[in-house]
Amino acid sequence: MKLRILRIIAGITAVVLMCTCLAACGKGGGEKTPEVTKPDSVEGPGDTGDLIDFDELLLEDPESTEPSSGDESTTAAEAPTGGNTSGGNTSGGNTSGGNTSGGNQNATSTQLTTEDVIRTVKALGYEYDEEQGIFYSTLNPWQRHFGFGDAYDEAAVYANMRYTTIKVDFVYQGLLWRIQCWKGQYGVLAGGEMGVYTKNPNDTSSEFYECASDENLLEMHFKFYKSVGDFNRKAPAFERKLQEHWWLTGFQFGYCDPKVCVMEMTLNAKDTAMANGIEKGLKAVTDKNGNLNAFKQYTGKNSTGSDFYIRNGNTFRIIWVKAGYQNYA
Q1: Does 107 fall in a domain?
Q2: Residue 80: inside a domain, yes or no?
Q3: Nearest 5°: phi and psi at 300?
């Protein structure tokens, strides 16, 4: 019980610290971070509401990048992502380009600049990809020691993290696996996450899952779109390259609606048995009340709706808009 309480406190503390430091970024002078403004409409030209354009939906292998010596590289080519301390992530913004020029060079020691934000976020266990303007979690941040549970999602809303989440549960090699994903608004940041967790199926004393061990890392990849229209126009806000991970994240300054932003994900299972478990889990995704709100297998151009997966052997391509539930509903 003490361990469970400590985990909850640690998770809530991390969320509050992250939101506090990021929310403060717009204060003072100097090189300011962009303000978050909600647009009149989250849809753009060519948006079709719930309908994904599948005319050219093909399963393509995303470019793979090899993380160096355990932790992800901070080079721009790897397109890193943001951190997840309670279901939600702390995605970064595009602070490169234009913010360092002209007249805003006289910040005082009490004023937070973009560099201050980056240093603070790094101290909390994240890295920053300047080219894409995103924060992302490394392979071995301190959060990896605390696992994950539903309590983190419930606490996140009080830290102004509002997102949609899905849980893909299955049993494989004697462990209960959970692949949980998130997309939406994290304070002043918009983005998404893919997490891999395991636990002993016979452990009924705790709702917490352990973060996947090194031998249980999975190859993952995702693109984040702020609307269905952006997806149909093939205009992602950012991308995380294919790599082995347990918590692939990305966050960018700006606004998105958790109900309409899109995650296009790739997931490579270890073998056929795991792939069968993942497929069964995708078909069994529920809302918060346990009602089926799942993914369908894509069967061709006549498929309608918004949440599909394509399986090619042990590889899945997953298009996610509405499945699962919102943590703030």
Answers
A1: no
A2: yes
A3: 140, -175
Q: What pLDDT band is residue 327 in, cutting at 50, 70 and 90?
A: very high
Residues comprising the chain, all counted: 329
Q: Let me know if residue 229 belongs to a domain.
A: yes
Decide the pairing of beta strands 308-312 and 296-297.
Answer: parallel
- Whether residue 65 lies inside any domain: the answer is yes
Hey, is 196 helix, strand or coil?
strand
What domain range includes position 78? 2-33+44-97+112-326
In whole angstroms, what is the distance from residue 195 CA to residue 187 CA? 20
Q: How far apart are CA 186 and CA 81, in angstroms?
A: 13
User: How confident is the model over 208-265, as pLDDT tens digits?
Assistant: 999 999 999 999 999 999 999 999 899 999 999 999 999 999 999 999 999 999 999 9
**Mean pLDDT computed over every residue of the chain:** 76
What DSSP string describes 178-203? EEEEEEEEETTEEEEEEEEEEE-TT-
Helices (H), the chain: 2-23, 114-123, 150-156, 228-232, 272-282
Pairwise CA distance, residues 247 & 210, whole Å: 12
CA distance 128 to 90: 11
Comparing 14 with 33, which gets the higher pLDDT?
14
* Domain count across the chain: 1
